[in-house]
Amino acid sequence: MENKLYYGIDVGGTSVKIGLFDGLALLKKWSVPTDTADGGSRILRDIAASLPGPAAGAALAVPGAVLPDGTVNRCVNLGWGVCRPADEFSALTGIPCRVLNDANAAALGEQRLGGGRGYQDVLFVALGTGVGAGVVLDGRVRVGARGTAGELGHLCMDPADPAAVCTCGHTGCLETYCSATGITRLAAQAGRPGMSCKDVMDAAAAGDGVLEAVVDRACDILGRGIAAACALLDPQAVVLGGGVALAGEYLRLKVQHAFEKYAFHACLGTEILLATLGSDAGLTGAALFAADAP
Amino acid sequence: MENKLYYGIDVGGTSVKIGLFDGLALLKKWSVPTDTADGGSRILRDIAASLPGPAAGAALAVPGAVLPDGTVNRCVNLGWGVCRPADEFSALTGIPCRVLNDANAAALGEQRLGGGRGYQDVLFVALGTGVGAGVVLDGRVRVGARGTAGELGHLCMDPADPAAVCTCGHTGCLETYCSATGITRLAAQAGRPGMSCKDVMDAAAAGDGVLEAVVDRACDILGRGIAAACALLDPQAVVLGGGVALAGEYLRLKVQHAFEKYAFHACLGTEILLATLGSDAGLTGAALFAADAP
Predict the structure, then answer these.
(1) Domains of chain B by start residue, with CATH
(2) % residues pLDDT > 90 (chain A)
(3) Which residue of A95, A147, B30, B116 is most buried, as measured by CB atoms within 10 A?
(4) pLDDT averaged over chain A?
(5) CB of A151 within 8 Å of any CB in chain B?
(6) ipTM (interface pTM)
């Protein structure tokens, strides 16, 4: 991707973050509001209108499943049904465009230029409102037959816990414990309702025993889920990102401890690392994906 | 691999199964006893002495972790420690040789020529004394950073079950429920000690309610584990093999039912299939791996 311009476009439910890259260097970054009216039909036009000029390629990172052929299978947060946004974007702009899932884009960004730098096989876990995840194997995003590879958030960790109701329709999903929503839920269950996840993490780190037990439980489940993922995928490293991971080493050490408790012995050397690109991970990965186009 | 001869060599704890392939056709098949005396030092020589002639390549399928560089990290059943058996075999025979894990070999065999034929991304699960598994992605065996990719048997399915003691040192591993050993253990727990796994399966299929509940529990856990693997790897198909899978459709339907109960919605179309190569899967996959040599 040297000496060529690429757009990395991270399409979120409230705003679209756009980066213009020259090779691996981010030249410029801006955002446009996400207009979800009329089934999100103006989103791509708004993005196109904000671009400063032509480029060798672009990629859209979207919050939904993307099939290997580039068909997007619904983005509830954008108002999109089944569609082919990369084709539409190319038709609007004349710029060759690809599309990938946003967690997969962040995974690629973190693997290539962030916390997972130097590793070819990385599991990226985004601990946000939900738990997104992406898998990079041999330096390439693993999309999966149905665009769901890396769905760590929907591993069933406890089928017998009726309180762990997931948005996906199941109970006991990892995301119902380890996301920001999950941690605040566990805090409420422990008698501390109405706290934000950050408040829970801060109070736990400051020595609140009740909330530390909440964080320990979330990390125990996350470590067990990561151990399962490592047994199956055997990556070189796991990168923790998303808002919850802003708790930094405090979280990382607890997750590593739980991982080591559950990991298959041969997986014990797997590195558990923190993400470094923050909210730029998605647009960075999208630009890398654009440049990786065959 | 057309018009070239390859040896596929499946090195087991009691015998070594060897197949001579011409392209995809198995020309001849034989076995030699596995001599585990003296740290298994005679195994490769015994294999070499049994070969009818030269070949374009060979591969050893071994019961242990194989690192991406071909180093074998212990095969307890063979008496081998850390070693490089492919190099030793090449030195003995003059035949270029590779090495892979035996479950990975069976996975490749079933994906390319067995139950998973026609699919490029396959999870193979061998339900035997233990639970082995292998992952084929884009038609290639996924070895993993530490040679453990596909270790479905060591997913922790219930960390709170003290009776589910695994040989790996943990409790609650999938293998402690879903292997032949696991199913006989569950039968004993249900008041039917001393039965073989086949007896349990046959009696359950014949209408013994107590034993059917045992099989249902094993299949529920297996379906949940496969759902986890599909969320992470998103293969096109899952192939069930090994001795326990000789129960055929009776087992497959129960596993599929449990899978559908736990699967992330986007994974629901994943095919659950039965293996077709039986005990030839390993040597077949080994020959294919030999022919795939770069």
Answers:
(1) 5-100 (3.30.420.40), 115-276 (3.30.420.40)
(2) 93
(3) B116
(4) 95
(5) yes
(6) 0.92
Residues 6+ apart with CB under 8 A from A223: A254, A255, A256, A257, A258, A259, A260, A261, A262
Q: How many CB atoms lie within 10 A of CB A181?
A: 18
Interface test with B, best of A142, A224, A232, A271 (most B CBs within 10 A): A232
From the CB of residue A158, how many other CB atoms can be counted at a distance below 10 Å? 19
Residue B207 backbone zone (phi > 0: left; psi -120 to 50: alpha; other: beta) = left
Tokens 């530490």 — which residue?
Answer: B146
Task: Kindly report the pTM of this predicted structure.
Answer: 0.94
Per-residue pLDDT, averaged over B7-31, amounts to: 96
Query: Is a pLDDT exceeding 90 seen at residue A1?
Result: no
Average pLDDT over residues B10-22: 96
Residues A148, A170: Cα–Cα separation, whole Å: 16
pLDDT of residue A3: 64
In the block, tokens 């990561």 appear at A226
Measure B139 CA to nearest chain A CA, in Å.
13
Is B265 near chain A, with CB under 8 Å?
yes
| Mean pLDDT value across residues B114-139 | 96
DSSP state of B138: T
pLDDT in the model for residue A73: 86
Are the Cβ atoms of A234 and B152 closer than 8 angstroms?
Answer: no
Query: Which residues pair with residue A16 across a beta bridge?
Result: A11, A32
Q: How sure is the predictor about B99, in pLDDT bands with cuts at 50, 70 and 90? A: very high
Q: Is B155 on the interface with A (CB under 8 A)?
A: yes
Q: Does A155 touch chain B (CB under 8 A)?
A: yes
Instruction: Please answer yes or no on whether B234 and A269 come within 8 Å at the CB atom.
Output: no
**Minimum distance, in Å, between the CA of residue B94 and any CA atom of chain A:** 31
CB crowding B241-277: b at 16 or more within 10 Å, else e:
bbbbbebeeebbebbbebbeebbbebbeebbbbbbbb
Measure B51 CA to nearest chain A CA, in Å: 34
For residue A227, give the nearest of B147, B156, B264 by CB distance.
Answer: B156
Nearest-angstrom CA–CA distance, B134 and B147? 10
Mean pLDDT, chain B, integer: 95
At B1, the pLDDT band (50, 70, 90 cuts) reads: very low
Q: Do B228 and A233 touch (CB under 8 A)?
A: no
Residue A270 in contact with partner chain B when CB distance is under 8 A: yes
Q: What is the mean pLDDT of residues A46-51?
A: 98
pLDDT of residue B3: 64
Please give the share of chain A, as a percent, with pLDDT higher than 70: 99
Using an 8 Å CB-CB cutoff, list chain B residues near A169.
Answer: 265
Which of A231, A289, A257 is closest to A66 using CA atoms?
A: A289
A228 in contact with chain B, both atoms CB, cutoff 8 A? yes
